[in-house]
Amino acid sequence: MAARTPEPDFRARTVRALLLSRELDHNRRRVGLSTRQAASGMDMSPAMLNRVMTGRRLPTALEVGGLCALFDVPAERRPVLYALAREGDRTQWLTHHDPGDPDRFAVLRELHAVAESITGYDTATLPLALRTADYHRAVLAATGAAPTARGPDRVEAYTAHYVHAHALRAPWVDPAVMTAQLARLRDDRRLRVLPDRTPPPAAHPFQVITTRHFPPVVFFDLGAATLLLELDAAAPHLAALRVVERGALSVGETRAFLDDLLFSR
Fold first, then answer.
1. Is the whole-model pTM more than 0.90?
2. Which residues pair with 170 in a beta bridge?
3. Which of 209, 227, 236 is nearest to 116 (CA)?
């Protein structure tokens, strides 16, 4: 049997280019066209179209329109793809939202869909993927956020959650709800607690998301806005995460910390 040829490590030029290429390629496969057939339909070389489909080259507006027509992209998605191409070289993504906006986490949802790993850090509450339903309702009530603000949860992609110790005390949560929440956390080996003495690395929750064909990106939930940082802009926050990893309790120490909290309640 012939050895399997490793898949090329194509790198999209930006996150916008990555998301644009992913959606175009999804629609190409949906209509059953090979890259060579699509290139012929666009009067492009297969190599040039391949660069578009891997995010290494941003298509022009004319090319986006042609690809949308060729791949029968739904009309409501076409303005989104035009915008991704138009802004494809930008490496920061600050978006202001109403807290109950159902599209608040649209970009994060797209990134989660292609994520190989997600590392979360939260300063005052537990990350979404670790919350019980009752605890989540308590957070919504305390913050005034709408239920639609829960956001995407690809729990299986999370590899680690770092939580500051004071987030696990939460006196504003009903004691019975918090006890049930802490009991659930005891068996999740991805949870790591930062001791009280550790200064928070950021004032807002953030995630580090790694994908197969792009360097890690950092996503911040700022309350009234979301912020996505990539490439050089992400570097200081990736360094901060390494500091968090070094300062966090081990898995065993985290479980002992939770046991002490449960015993003292």
1. no
2. none
3. 209
Tokens of 195: 């001791």
Dist CA 160 CA 107 (whole Å): 21
- Give the distance from CA 19 to its chain's centroid: 12
CA distance 6 to 222: 39
If phi > 0 it is left, if psi is from -120 to 50 it is alpha, else beta; for residue 193 that is: beta
Longest dimension (CA), the chain: 71
Supply the DSSP symbol for 221.
E
Percent of the residues in the chain that have a pLDDT greater than 90, as a whole number:
52
What is d(CA 101, CA 108) in angstroms, rounded to the nearest whole number? 14
Is residue 132's pLDDT more than 80? yes
227-258 b/e (C-beta count within 10 Å ≥ 16 → b):
bbbbeeebeebeebbeebeeebbeeeebbebb
